[in-house]
Amino acid sequence: MHNILEKLFGWLYPLMRKLNFGDTFASYISLLINILILCFLAFFIYIIFRLILVSVLAIIAKKTKTNFDDLLVSNQTAKYIAHLIPFLLIYKSVPVILEHYVYWESMFGKLVEVYIILLSLWIIRSVLKAIRDYIKEQPRFSDKPIDSYVQVIMIVLWIYGIGVIISKLFEIDKTTLLGTLGAISAIVILIFRDTILGFVASVQVSLNDMVRIGDWITFDRYGADGDVIEINLATVKVRNFDNTTTTIPTYGLISDSFRNWRGMLNSDGRRIKRHILVKAKSIRFLTDTELQKMKKIQLISNYIETRQAEINQYNNTNSIDKSISINGRNMTNFGLFRKYITNYLENHPGLNKDMILICRQLQPTAQGIPLEIYAFSKDQRFAEYEYIMADIFDHIISSITHFDLELFEYSSDKNNHED
Question: CB 3.0–4.6 Å: which of 86, 235, 279, 338 could bond 46 by disulfide?
Fold first, then answer.
């Protein structure tokens, strides 16, 4: 290679000397012409190899079944490689062309080496990006933080590349350079604090399977409530349900508390946990006449029959004085309403009967007695879930008057509230 380059660039100077040109003039003219020849050759080689590499890779991409080569094309890997080949020629040619110019040979040689190192890093980056895109298309890896791993590899390569560039430019031994970097490691850690924390967080998030791409998370501190669309070394991007995007520091996922709804979405139901407030003063014992009337409510007619027979038997056996309703055992409108709602929920087609289903009374409050529904809808999708829950409470609110109960609500008079 060296002999070929000497023949290519070494013929002009002797020719000009034979033509009786001065040594200095012949030297500078031959240098200028050799630089022009080198630039022309480098540009010609770049055009040829770019055409060949891009065309060949495009043809291969069309004929193969795998999508990886298509991703190499889209990430311009062939273009970067085509750039590298002429610079390898320049790198080999500089010592020959600038043989008599030691200072400039050293200077330009170092600059070409630096550019080759940077170009090599760009080629590696384009290949890694193609690998990243290819892996993310695979179903089993689509929810993994592949971006984080690629970024970590590139950071390590950039640090190594910068170290090599510094050692080339200033002619520092690599061992000495590593020792110097070790001495200033505290400053390096301070500068790359977020990157280091992000890397540690990415590893923990991946190993503990805390978050995947596509998960619905709620992170109150950052106002995030939506689907994770990207996990990289420094940030996690969440597309909120209002189509805004929230960016969360990756290390925030392990330093703060957030809610991941994946378990709910992967389960057999989505929880409904909501209550209404019933006025305490509207709760009372039911008379036989009222019970007879309520037997027309089909969901609880059999229950009233059975329960009333059981209560009457107890009261008769124990000679209970029923002239006062508080004596003995009785049914209340609130208890009967709870039983009605329980039967209604058990017959509702939108609820999962294999999971918890409860209509329960909570601790009384100043506003009334909370009656809570605790159940799980079959459909976890947001719109369908809201529809099922609204349908249930529409029925509950509408049916409460049939049991002579009242809901608590503030009076329209701003100065007075309902008791």
Answer: 86
